[in-house]
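Section handout 9: paired folding examples.
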Amino acid sequence: MEEQSRRSATLTRQHAELTQDIEKLQAQQGSIAPKLAKQLKDLSEQVGTVPVTGPGLTVTLKDAPSQVVKDNPDVDADWLVIHQQDIQAVVNALWAGGADAISIQNHRVISTTGIKCVGNSVVLHGVPYLPPYKITAIGDRRKLQKALDDSQYIDNLQDYVVKFQLGYEVKTQSSIAMPAYEGTLDLQSATVPGFDKKPTVSPSVTGSGR
């Protein structure tokens, strides 16, 4: 996932630079060279700023049923709900499986998209959503499914699916129409006090526990 994040960061930077170059040329000449237009189109598809269509699959995650919660009063409530790291683990696995595009709740995301948990909801692009959470990916369905099956985190999540009936369903689709990414392409950096202030951009989830 670190390699995917670095590649995404590079593509995003190239897209921003090329867009600026084209805007300057348009201001000066009023037209775009065909070569530059094609480069922008190709980069836009890779970065996610244009709609795409193709085969793929959707993973649906749900909290445990209310009856299960009532029947298990002594169980940690955190074990009975879907968390941001569960969503991120699915997203990370799909990227690792070669996904060409991913959306959450029908909102296009890129590898640098942040997913936050606030109370019992997940916030995406500043908007809170309640379960069920639908994570959709376009790409080779067999490779995407294998990546999900190979994920250590998702394998651990299956224990909670069995014990507490958390919802985890995978549905393959022959054709998926996915919208363009609408968030900012500005790259944000994070630093740790006491360490070299080198920008990092990575949504990867580590560990296998909840």
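Moving on to protein 2 of 2.
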Amino acid sequence: MTNSPEHALSVLAVPAFNDNYLWLIHDGKQAAVVDPGDAKPILAALAAHGLTLCAILLTHHHADHTGGVPELLQHFSVPVFGPRNEAITDITEQLAENDVAIVAELGLCLSVIDVPGHTKGHIAYVRQRGETNGPPWLFSGDTLFAGGCGRLFEGTPGQMADSLGKLAALPDDTLVYCAHEYTLSNLRFASAVEPGNLALQERLAVDTEKRQQGLPTVPSTVGLEKATNPFLRYREPAILASLKVAGKLGHDASPVEAFAALRMWKNNF
């Protein structure tokens, strides 16, 4: 179901609230929206770009990701894809790992990955390389952020570490479309726990300049996250040393305990 060049798909960032990104996947005519926490900016973007909504894709149940769904459904009768293991009223297509979300109007196929941790039933969507003329796409919701990861509201540190491991296993050029502009605060924390990481310092400089120009820092790539994101690097000796020096971790701690300590440190940073 690969799109021909004249019907190539694009991803449009629609800012909402203070720091959310709602994502429109479109071919210039039809569009699917990922995590529409607010209907109004989506309706405005659809009108501005001459697009018709054909599907809604949800990663988890939090209101800043689902709040706009009822209003959008008043304007468009479309399927609502979402996690099978979360109670979201408007879902019509329940999904879990190894399922595929197919948006026929766009010729779009998205593989589903279970990524519990932030919430118990959180899922992510991946457009594989064979479905695109360029790199794969990842819509990670609130699991993997640029330079960070989501808080553990419902899941365990072990679940989140495993979920991030699944995403880190995607090809390095995979574009990461996360749901929030948290990048600079995430990278400042990352710099505190791994100050000798030169790739991280370069990224912080580049992304700081982007924000000064009013530009988004996302999408990033899986490869960039693996090189700079402490929550994908929690086994690195430098990060373990920082945790121990700061008194956050004992000397015989397991990798999951290191991840948990790192996440707790970030919570209080």
